[in-house]
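Q: How would the structure tokens look for this protein?
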Amino acid sequence: MADTTEVNALPELACACATVRRTARLVTQMYSHEMAPLEPGQFALLSAFESHPGVSQMTIGRALGIDKTTLSRNLRLLERSSWIIAGPTSDQRERGYRLTNAGKKVLASSRAGWSRAQKKLRSALQPGEWESMMNVFGRVALAVQQQSGSERKGRNA
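A: Here is the predicted structure in token form.
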């Protein structure tokens, strides 16, 4: 992790979006380093397919906050790597995804790196900050989802 001087040198950003994006980039870089060759986004998708086999693209996109285009591109990459396989769902317009044996193996092999990244970040924070961070990020994500949902409803009225 960066030393205190570098962290203090980061400019304050008065924009929530810029602050969240900067934080996300820095955290992603740390996790990527620990989890290579699997990327954190791939880890999240594979973990979701492990815990919810057959989940549809639309459902996983909403749950992880991934737009349709980005999700389609990532799913193609996971399929090309033979880590997931698509199959039918109860809705003929959707496909469901499951982990392959190769996907299960790459996910399992990445867990140690993921755990190291989690521990590094947690240890860089003061007592209670990890829990506060997780709570605030969850509330922010929910607030944005609710706001986006109400905006969609307003446009359709």
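The CA atoms of residues 127 and 133 lie 11 Å apart.

The longest helix spans residues 129-156.

Upvote if useful.
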